[in-house]
Amino acid sequence: ATPRSAAEREIALLREDLTISKWRLDEKDQALVKVVTQVDSLTAALRKSRQRAADEASHAREADAELAVVQEALQQRDAVIREQEDRIAELEDLLVSARRQSAAATSAADAVGSGTSAAAVREAHERIEDLQEQNAALQKSMLALQAEARRREAESAEVRREVAALRNTLAARDAKTQMEAAMDSDDDPLERTRMAARHSRRADSIGET
C-alpha cells in the first residue's frame, strides 16, 4: 500500500467519524428540543393549575362572604320571630284577662236587681261593650302577629335551604380543588423534566457504545 492510499483511507475514516459525530449531535439536539418542549408544556400546565387554584380560592372567599351575609340575615330574622312570639304570648295573656273581665262584667250586669238605677245598668253594658271591643282588637292583633310569624318562619326556612345548598356547593368545590391539587402533585413538572433528561442521557450513552 502506498502512502497515498493510506492517507485516503485515513481521510475516509475521519469523514465517517465526522458523519457519525454529526448524527449523534443531531440526535442530542433533537433530544434537547424534546426536553425543552416538555418543560415549556409542563410550565404552562403548572401556570394554568396555579391560576385555576387561585380562581377557586377567590370563588371560595366570595362564597364564604356570601354565606356569612346570609347567616347574619337568618339570625336577624330568627331574632324578629322570637320577639313576635313574645308579643303573641303577651297578647294572649291580655286576651285571657279581657275575657275574664268581660265575663265578670256580664255576671255583674245579670245580677243587677230591680232596685238598681238605669244609669248603673247602662254603665255596666257600656263596660261590657268596651271589654268586648278590646277583646276583638286583641284577637285581631294576635292573629296578625301569628300570620307574620308564620310568614317569617317560612322565609327563614327558605334561607336555611339556601345556606345548606351553598354549603354543599362549597364542599363540592373544595373536594374538586383538593383532587386537582393531588393530581398536580402526582404529575410534578420537575420530576417529569428530570425523567426526560435521564432518558436523553441514556440514549446518548447507548449511541456512544
From TrEMBL:
Superkingdom of origin: Eukaryota
Keyword annotations from UniProtKB, A to Z: Coiled coil
Annotated segments matching region Disordered: 175-209
Name of protein: Uncharacterized protein
Coiled-coil ranges from the UniProt annotation: 74-169
Gene3D superfamilies attached to this UniProt entry: 1.10.287.1490
Species this chain originates from: Bicosoecida sp. CB-2014
